[in-house]
Design goal:
The chain is an alpha+beta fold and 203 residues long. It contains 6 helices and 8 strands; from the N terminus they run E-H-E-E-E-E-E-E-H-H-H-E-H-H. The longest helix has 15 residues. It is elongated.
Length: 203
Amino acid sequence: MYVPPSMRLEREQAWELIDRHGFAALVDDELSATHLPLMLERSEGELGTLYGHFARANPQWRTLDGNRALAIFSGPHAYISPTWYASQPAVPTWNYLAVHATGSIELLNDEDTRTLLDRSLAHYEPALLDSLGREREYLSKMQAGVVGFRLRIETLTGKAKLGLQRSRADQEGVEAALAESRDPQARQLWRHMQKLAKEGQGT
């Protein structure tokens, strides 16, 4: 991913985007891809470790153990009209946030896969995990249909293309349009613009 220095996200900012937008595309060296939720464990390794699971019927997991893969996380994004800028002439563009994480895949054993499933339920729907607390047979059947894995992150690249390198008048025009948009992603993008501007990051 091409990332000008002024658009680069710091490690903690990249982690935050993964936590908020954890649905990723996992791509192997054969250019096969699976779309799946991934969970980040920040304390494992300098750049963190990602956890997820494949459907057992998905053949991709059979070729990944010990091999490298790329996880692509897409944050909020939106079309940016040139009419929103105070400076003219201008061109239309697309602003977005994204994170790429690469590393080696390691398949999990049964015990670690069960822990991963419990953690996933606790994260996404804790009430369901509570209701299934005694139904270990159900959880065992669920586990039989998946293959858990971890990806130890070796490279972590985050990009925030938000137009913060433009004049304040241009930024205000974009912010006003995004804030009034009916598109939830556009409004999320507006909030990220405000947050990163306060942190002093120009893009």
